[in-house]
Amino acid sequence: MHKWLLASFLCSLSASAQTKNAIAITHVTVIDCTGAAAKPNSTVVVTGGLIGAVGPSGTVTIPVAARVVDATGKFLIPGLWDMHGHLTDATADAFPLLIMNGVTGVRDMGGDLVQIDRWRSEINNGTRVGPHIVRAGPFVDGPKEGVTNRLTVRTPEEARQAVRDLKAKSVDFIKVHNALPPDAFFALMDEARKEHIPVAVHLPKGVSSAEASDAGVASLEHIETINESALWRKGATAKTVEQAVDENLGPAGQELFQRFAKNGTWYVPTLVAYERGFMLWSNDPEALKPRMDVQAKQITLVGMMHKAGVKIMAGSDFSDWGMVPGVDLHNELALLVEAGFTPLEALQAATLNPAKFLGKTDTYGTIQVGRAADLVLLDMNPLEDISHTRKIHAVVVGGKFYPLASLRAQALQDAANRQ
Length: 419
Ligand SMILES: [Zn+2]
What we know:
Helix content: 40-55%
CATH class of the largest domain: Alpha Beta
Low-confidence stretches: 1-17
Bound molecules: zinc ion
CATH topology of the largest domain: TIM Barrel
């Protein structure tokens, strides 16, 4: 074979290998989540698991072998991230639910590191369909009864050792839970800063939200912890949760939120966990009413934080106790809109913001050339009504196009196989 022939043969071989699994989604309205206006009649080309081209239909070259999906009348958003989930508790059953619901990324907030890493490598090598996973591994917590996947820490020195041990295990970040003694918490924060590991915090009892923010936590979890903080901060005057909530609705809250904004502390309110939890945990109407009043105020607090410039991410706290993986992220987006986010801002809380938080805006969070092809094709416009994020037609993840019907059929088959 002549040299030029060989060269052109190899060239066409690599071109066809690249475009063999190409996907072209045509005539779609792209909501890229950068903050730009929606772009009607666009074409998005996916090659090799990446977004290869985005532009007006007719101007984008569609690879010859591409699977063409005519998406006239449909809407395309980036894959969603649930920034607070527990895969170990939810078990592998979570994966089909997450993907069916357009959740293509999960920040795992504490679980069995070995198991999560096994799942993660199966997803990466294509033997399991699932989301990208960023994980903490075991929680760092104080002594507690009846819990698993914990590094139990009692002293500042043990806290520093826990940071070094987790660093050696290459965790993506550290998750602190609420029984960690305050002196151990501050030692952990100091050591994590030296080791350059971000720390996500379920507020330890006795540490205030302001102190945690000043100590440099990457993210604070759960809206209720700012109310707990108001009960145990130095000089606290609130005696009940109701009084604590009311304090946060006033100038004390404004001051706190300005501090979060100034320190760059992210917040993941997991409002849906309280909505669901407050109902599940109570079948006594007498007890339910005050809880629902607190929840309404918690929604207001998230809106206040957002107005104050606090960076917020969507997380459901899906687990084993009643939160549904995938489904409850959509409920969280609706609650963010109820708190005062525009639908686009709510979408960004699950797309662009997680990418920013993770330092991966070149890879995730928007529909732009070169990003991972994590895409959700919707039948209705989510900018008109956030509940339309549930109108999923198909999901693209790992370079593959999954019509919702095929994901449903697979989930049913998996369920039948488990019987
Ligand atoms: Zn959690």
